[in-house]
Design goal:
The protein is 46% helix and 9% strand. It has helices at 27-32, 86-99, 107-125, 130-144, 150-158, 172-184, 189-208, 235-265, 283-293, 297-302, 334-343, 366-376, 385-396, 401-408, 426-445, 449-452, and strands spanning 22-23, 40-44, 50-54, 60-67, 73-81, 308-309, 314-317, 328-331, 354-355, 360-361. A hairpin with a 5-residue loop joins strand 4 and strand 5 (73-81). It is extended, with a radius of gyration of 32 Å. One of its GO terms (biological process) is DNA recombination. GO terms for molecular function: DNA binding. Residues 228-432 form the Tyr recombinase domain.
Length: 453
């Protein structure tokens, strides 16, 4: 009785047989391979991880497949047939697996393989300086992955004495010395911590590139915790701020009318009137957007009309402009929807807050912001505090901290714990759940003295 291919799982056309999808990758076997319009892959029975792959077009590739120490699968191409023969490919695969950290390796073996690989790369191509890497491969890596290049700029600006050192000469002790010197100049611990975080990110990519096998910045204590005072607007301050913004709009309209009258008197072409427009410039829409989204200053400057989805009432904060390298969506409040709808016809065509003179996004609002605070008689309230105000309103309304974290674009829940004390009765609720409620339930279950009598 004839047996079909479908009935025999180990059947291989062209005369080759497989045992559990494994073959002996040899010259004879390679000669049997042919394109069939699909990807084909066969594992070598003798060398675990050594495979041959046939593309739909018929290209025969030698590869190694393995599991990394973190459990993820890895693959590397080592050559193509017939330019590389089976015997050569097998030796290349054996050498590659001997130098690649694998899941089955002990931690000591993994570290030794990383060290040998890093030394091999340095011998082959040399080790770039911090400056060369930041301006070259690191910046290219960030751009290719749609990550802001601000981290590369921060490293270049913060570590001038290390820029011309090869990356593999950066040590924990060298960074400790930098930290000590900078601290003596009065730089705040949080700023030092941010700069150490920046160079750690750069060195992490240098590890991927094979220039170093360990990250020296990981061993340097940060010492800097955010010295954050959660400053938010009181109801009275909020009312005064909005009144100051409206008064500013009226002052701008009056100033424009005086300009129109002056131009007409001189028989010159007057500018258009501002009497019938909702906003005379970007300042009020900028502040309203900040208070209703909690967006960072840089995110507001980079915001484009293409990021504003009026239909679904959502703002898309692009990955390239976020601090934590994560895209997020922020729902648009009713107040903000009215504001942006009125502002769009008056605004820059590309940027929500663009400079019509330079055709680029705005880069500074400090002067107008300080004027508003002075007019509203509000003190000790930075523009960044609009972000705290947004978070505080969410928490006070009972929104859980994890959703607040997502809206603010924080990667770590610990960052938003600073707002926990604002949750309504959050400590009383915890005590009631843990102590009071069980006690009341136990009293209800206990028989009364009258019933016992």
């Amino acid at each position: 009785m004839a047996v079909s291919c479908r009935q025999r799982p180990n059947y291989r056309p062209n005369g080759a047989t497989m045992s559990k999808n494994k073959v002996t990758i040899s010259r004879e076997f390679l000669r049997t391979l042919a394109a069939n319009g699909k990807f084909q892959e066969y594992a070598d029975a003798a060398l675990t991880g050594f495979k041959v792959r046939v593309t739909p077009a018929g290209t025969v590739q030698f590869t190694v497949r393995y599991y990394k120490p973190d459990g993820k699968a890895g693959r590397k191409a080592i050559g193509t047939y017939p330019a590389m023969q089976a015997t050569e490919a097998r030796e290349a695969a054996r050498a590659e697996l001997a130098e690649t950290p694998l899941k089955r390796d002990t931690p000591a073996v993994v570290e030794e393989k990383k060290r040998r690989r890093a030394e091999s790369v340095r011998r082959t191509v040399g080790c770039p300086t911090v400056r060369q890497f930041c301006d070259g491969d690191y910046r290219a890596y960030l751009e290719a992955n749609e990550i802001s290049t601000a981290n590369a700029d921060l490293v270049l600006a913060s570590f001038p004495e290390m820029l011309d050192r090869p990356i593999d000469e950066i040590t924990p002790w060298l960074l400790e010395g930098w930290k000590s010197r900078v601290a003596k100049t009065g730089v705040k611990p949080k700023t030092i911590a941010n700069k150490l975080h920046a160079i750690q990110g750069m060195l992490r990519v240098a590890m991927k590139a094979g220039h170093i096998f360990d990250n020296p910045a990981k061993e340097v204590p940060r010492n800097g915790k955010a010295d954050v005072i959660v400053r938010y607007l009181s109801a009275d301050e909020r009312e005064r701020l909005y009144a100051a913004m409206e008064a500013r709009e009226e002052a701008n309209r009056d100033a424009r009318q005086r300009t129109i009258a002056h131009r007409r008197m001189r028989k010159q072409t007057p500018p258009p009137s501002l009497r019938n427009v909702r906003y005379t410039d970007h300042v009020q829409p900028f502040v309203v957007t900040a208070l209703n989204t909690g967006m960072r200053l840089g995110e507001l400057f980079a915001l484009q009309w293409g990021d504003v989805d009026f239909e679904h009432k959502s703002i898309h904060v692009r990955r390239a402009v976020t601090k934590d390298d994560e895209r997020r969506d922020i729902p648009i409040t009713d107040e903000l929807l009215e504001c942006l709808t009125a502002w769009k016809p008056l605004a820059h065509k590309l940027f929500v807050f663009g400079n019509p003179e330079t055709d680029a996004p705005l880069t500074d609002v400090s002067s107008a912001w300080e004027g508003l605070l002075a007019a509203a008689e509000i003190t000790a309230f930075r523009f960044h505090d609009c972000r705290h105000d947004y978070a505080s309103k969410l928490v006070a309304a009972g929104v859980d901290l994890n959703r607040v974290r997502a809206l603010l674009g924080h990667s770590d829940l610990k960052t938003v714990l600073r707002y926990a004390h604002l949750a309504p009765d959050h400590l009383h609720d915890a005590i009631n759940t843990a102590f009071n409620a069980p006690r009341k339930a136990a009293k209800k279950r206990a028989p009364s003295k009258t019933a016992a009598a």
